[in-house]
Amino acid sequence: MATKIYTKTGDDGTTGLFGGARLSKDDIRIEAYGTVDELNSIIGWLMTVIPDQQIDSLLQNIQSRLFTVGSNLASQPGKDMITPDLLEEDIALLETSIDKMQATLAPLTHFIMPGGSQSVSAAHIARTVCRRAERRCVTLSNKSSVEPIILLYLNRLSDFFFVLARWLAVREGVTEIKWQPRKKD
Asked: By residue range, what is the domain housing residue 146?
């Protein structure tokens, strides 16, 4: 007999952390790792609209690192637990990827509007959800311990998605949409 997916333990509005503690489902810790999970799902969708094996490989790596981030955030603070680690090399990979893509782009001289194609839009959605995940983790870090490398990784990752969106626009021949502020009368 297959194990059931539902446990009914969350029916009271709480959920369990690795380590056994139970928290309200609206706790900032749950919000933080839930937003990281949302970002990971968006990256899965992004991969379906960018049929490029090299980018898919990089995005799969990022998804794996986000599982690392999520497992760290979902672990009970103060409990001695072994969790996967995020490394400086993970940040270096993002920075190298950003630098390679940016080397092919014209300098940014204006604000750009998200959009232009499915893949460009998906990369911008990933960027904005990544920024929200970062904000949730910063809020959590003001109340509880969060590994500083998690904040650094999420910050760099949102930069990666911004540059990826611009790079995809160039690759697809999509003109970036410049933001034109309305002039005051």
From this structure: 24-71+112-177
